């Protein structure tokens, strides 16, 4: 059960901004990895990793079922990532553009509608 907000002076938006600032303050992969491991449960971190892991396959236009077979990530999660990649807040796109691996940036843009699931 989620606790009620203790400090009514802190809005949800400012708490989110503070988290974003903390993430931006990390210097290097080692610090970020440590922070994420402290911040998230193992299951939460695995979910984040799974979501990021399917992005290259979606950019290549691979079918959801094939992505599932290659990664073990559920078809539902693949679909969720595809939807946000195409119609989300632009976060995936920004991360792709800033990604340190040039091959990820060079991949094509997914269609406006995500690839169809195959059974």
Question: Any overview of this molecule?
Answer:
The protein has 119 residues and is mostly helical. The protein has helices at residues 12-25, 28-39, 42-59, 64-71, 75-87, 91-98, 102-106. Helix 3 packs across helix 5. The radius of gyration is 17 Å and the shape is globular.
Question: Any descriptors?
Answer:
single chain; 119 residues; 7 helices
Order of helices and strands: HHHHHHH
The dominant shape is globular
Structural class: mainly alpha
Mean pLDDT: 86
Main beta sheet, described?
A: none
The parts where pLDDT drops under 50 for at least 5 residues are 110-114
The beta-strand count equals 0
Can you count the helices?
7
Beta-strand residue percentage: under 5%
Query: Roughly how many Å is the radius of gyration?
Result: 17 Å
Terminal CA distance: 37 Å
Give me the secondary-structure topology:
Elements: H1 12-25, H2 28-39, H3 42-59, H4 64-71, H5 75-87, H6 91-98, H7 102-106
Helix pairs in contact: 3-5
Structure summarized in a few sentences:
Helix content is 66%, strand content 0%. It is mainly alpha-helical. α3 (42-59) packs across α5 (75-87).
């Amino acid at each position: 059960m989620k606790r009620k907000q203790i400090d009514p002076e802190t809005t949800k938006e400012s708490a989110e901004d503070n988290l974003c600032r903390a993430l931006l303050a990390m210097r290097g992969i080692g610090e970020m990895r440590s922070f994420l491991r402290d911040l998230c449960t193992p299951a939460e971190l695995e979910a984040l990793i799974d979501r990021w892991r399917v992005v290259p396959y979606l950019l290549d236009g691979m079918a959801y079922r094939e992505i599932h077979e290659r990664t073990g990530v559920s078809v539902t999660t693949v679909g969720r990532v595809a939807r946000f990649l195409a119609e989300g807040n632009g976060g995936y796109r920004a991360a792709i553009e800033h990604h340190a691996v040039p091959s990820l940036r060079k991949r094509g843009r997914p269609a406006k509608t995500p690839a169809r699931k195959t059974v």
